[in-house]
Structure formats: structure tokens, C-alpha cells
Amino acid sequence: MDDKTRTAAGIAAGLQGLTYDDKRLAELAAEVETLNDAVRQAAAKRLTFDDDPFTFASLLEREAKK
Asked: How many domains does the chain contain in total?
């Protein structure tokens, strides 16, 4: 099990109380990586390091409504 899959397993078990087999954990890790990359790329184009943290939440809300 790679680090990303192990992280997905830890989040599922520790935060959600869920357990999955290794195949599903690998799928979840890949899905999270894809979503995370998309959010980071979108934010990088519209936000700077010094922006108020609320600006990030506001950006996500606006994009979700599209």
C-alpha cells in the first residue's frame, strides 16, 4: 500500500469510522488526488498567499454553483 492509499485509509477509519478493502482505498486515493489537484490549480489562478482565508471558501462556493 502506497502512502496516498495509507492516508486515505487513515482518514476513512480515523475520521469517518469506515473501512474499505485495499482496491477501494486505492481508488479513493486516486479520486481525492484528482479533486485536490483541480482545486489547487483553480485556486492558484485566482488566489494569492496573502488573501484572506475566507476568499478560498468563497471561491469554492462560487465555482460549485456553476
From this structure: 1
The residue assigned the cell 456553476 is 66
Q: What is the extent of the structural domain holding 45?
A: 3-64
Q: Which residues contact 7 (CB under 8 A, 6 or more apart)?
A: 29
Total residues belonging to the chain = 66
User: Where are the alpha helices (H) located in 1-66, listed in sequence order?
Assistant: 3-16, 22-46, 53-64
DSSP state of 52: -
How far the first Cα of the chain sits from its last, in Å, is 36
What's the pLDDT score for residue 27?
Answer: 95
The pTM of the full predicted model, rounded to 2 decimals, is 0.68
Determine the residue type at 14: G
pLDDT beyond 80 at 46: yes
